[in-house]
Amino acid sequence: MKLNLKIIIPVAVIVIAALVVAKKKGWIGEGADTVAVETGYAHRRTVVESVTASGKIQPEVEVKMSPEVSGEIIEVNVVDGQQVLEGDILVKINPDLYESAITRARAAVNSSKAVLAQSSVALDEAKKLWARNKVLFEKGAISEQEYDAAQRAISVAELQEESAKYQLQSAEANLDEAYKNLKRTTIIAPINGTVTQLDVELGERVVGTATMTGTEMLRIADLNTMEVLVEVNENDIVKITKGDTAIIEVDAFLGNSFRGVVSEIANSAKLALGASPDQVTNFEVKIRMINGSFATLVPDYGENPFRPGMTATVEIITNKMRDALVVPIQAVTVRSDTSSNAVSYERVLSEDVDESFEVVFTPDGMKAGLLVVESGIQDDEFIIVTGVEDSTEVVTGPYSAVSRNLKRGTRITTDKK
Known about the structure:
The chain is α+β, with helices and mostly antiparallel strands.
């Protein structure tokens, strides 16, 4: 028994000492929680930042045709999809009512002319009477009252002549308006283009006035210049500027990509009726399609292969940097405790920035190190950073480790990607 104790006691001491050393080394206990991580390297490459959005193709110029007069359609000279030239007659409205209006207006003009002529004659007679009465009054042949009456007759005749002139002007204006209304019964094409929508038929009645929008009859568009109308959310709209280039993909022509340029950016957000305050705020952006980019489609689909309403996806290039130092996007995370990098931490504090900092983790032997970084633009895979050197190895995954679990000194095993 004593012999056994002599053996057991030294062995126990050795085991306890080994456990203490293992504890201090982190081989057992709390330090034994080793995290398996994936890594990549900082390197230089070209980074293209872009904003992607979907929308509809539409003509850059489209005219909605509505009548300025009401009546029954007696002639429709176009069909949907037909090409027209400026000045072509598209639709005719029954002119009978407006021809009658011209007849009445012309009669009113003639009547006003007759009234004016009578007023002029009456004025001449009043002036002659006044001249005779003046001579008689000077000779004492008539009373002062008769002389004054002759003067008043001139004033009345002058007013009647002036009124007749105004009535004639009004009648002539009505006649001119009647002629215009008759002309408005013939709807002509205002531009060269294609009929993209025809909403009326022969015999249908349409309503229209010169001051209010009437029944929409048809639309004419210039299909030689097309654009894509998309909606971009408020977080991305600030990145886009007029003139930015874009890559366009049209669902009807899968496998093909076309070029475009941002032509318009809305200054005000597009808000839907009844929208709630917390609804996503979007802004409309128009991208003009560059004709030369779809030249390969012309032999099979004609000069205008795109139709209004086709669905398209655009990638707007908002920024591009060459030879930029980047790391994989998933390597950058946020931490509030950066004490593992005293130099970077002091620099950040001296700049009086937010309490949370962008960081990357780096393998430091068997443990995780940490670097404070500042990010720039990014593409789908990489993000530009400052605070690391070229070829620096950084932890890229798994996501749970990078985003939550890793901290300075965490034991890691690496799996380079």
